[in-house]
Amino acid sequence: MELKNRIRELRFKHNEMSQQELADLIGVSRMTIYSMEKGKYIPSTVLAIKLARVFNTTVEDIFSLSEVEE
């Protein structure tokens, strides 16, 4: 299973929010946002909930699991 996310898409839907602006809102570094968007960092539950609050949506709307072909 692979964790997919819509963070980049949602940032652009919210007034083209920068990675730094989002990072400042949720209390992480810009590199954390970058790493999440690239799928290299899996956020904690707390961080996922903070993202959902910023984007006024659900965690499930931001993150999803997909099958990985082997």
Short description:
With 70 residues, the chain is mainly α. Helix content is 53%, strand content 11%.
Explain this structure.
This protein is mostly helical and 70 residues long. It has a single domain, classed as lambda repressor-like DNA-binding domains (434 Repressor (Amino-terminal Domain)). The chain contains 5 helices and 2 strands, in the order βαααααβ. A two-stranded antiparallel ribbon has the order 1-2. Helix 2 crosses helix 3. The protein is globular, with a radius of gyration of 12 Å. It starts with a strand and ends with a strand. The model has no long low-confidence stretch (mean pLDDT 95).
Beta strand count: 2
Q: Mean pLDDT, nearest integer?
A: 95
CATH class: Mainly Alpha
Q: Main sheet: which strands, in order across?
A: 1-2
Number of domains: 1
The CATH architecture designation is: Orthogonal Bundle
Morphology call = globular
- Looking at this structure, what is the CATH superfamily? lambda repressor-like DNA-binding domains
- What's the main sheet like? 2 strands, antiparallel
| CATH topology (fold) name | 434 Repressor (Amino-terminal Domain)
**How many angstroms does the end-to-end distance come to?**
10 Å
Beta-strand percent range: 5-15%
Low-confidence stretches: none
Structural class: mainly alpha
